[in-house]
Amino acid sequence: MPDSHLNPTPAGGAPGSQLAGWSAEESYWRDAWATRPYAVATRDFDYYRPAYRYGFESAQAHQSRFWDDVEPDLRTGWARYEHRADSAWGDVEDAVRDAWERVTNP
User: Fold this and answer.
1) Any idea of the CA torsion for 79, 76, 62, 53, to the nearest 10 degrees?
2) Of the candidates 37, 97, 106, 36, the residue with the CA atom closest to the CA atom of residue 69
3) What's the rounded mean pLDDT across residues 62-89?
4) How many alpha carbons lie under 13 Å from residue 16 in its C-beta half-sphere?
5) Could you tell me how far CA 12 lies from the centroid of its own chain?
6) Half-sphere exposure in the Cβ direction for 21 (13 Å, CA)
7) pLDDT averaged over the chain?
């Protein structure tokens, strides 16, 4: 699989438009993250931010695919994701999926 999920650009969009889109998403998640069932009290927004961004970017790059079909590739790609913090896939998978679903199921 190509590493398109590492730096995806929405179909028909320019890289700058995705960055602007992430800015709005980041604002949403900054306000919403603590209400999510997977949020751990000992972790702050900065812990989850890379996962939300990865889910957001990945959903745009794989618009016509389903989560269950893409999840194995995303799990593998998480270790190479340029914005990834020191977090294991198992600790952020729910946040990635949450962001994915926000993009794919508006």
Assistant:
1) -30
2) 97
3) 90
4) 0
5) 20
6) 20
7) 83
Report how far apart the first and last C-alpha atoms of the chain are (Å, whole number). Answer: 27
CB 51 within 8 A of CB 43: no
Q: If you write DSSP's letter for every residue of 21-53 in order, what string do you get?
A: HHHHHHHHHHHHGGGSTT--TT--HHHHHHHHH
pLDDT in tens, 7-45: 343 333 444 445 558 999 999 999 999 999 999 999 999
pLDDT category, 83, cuts 50, 70, 90? Answer: confident
Task: Report the alpha-carbon distance of residue 31 to residue 42 in Å, rounded.
Answer: 17
Cα dist. 83→39, 46, 52 in Å? 19, 11, 10
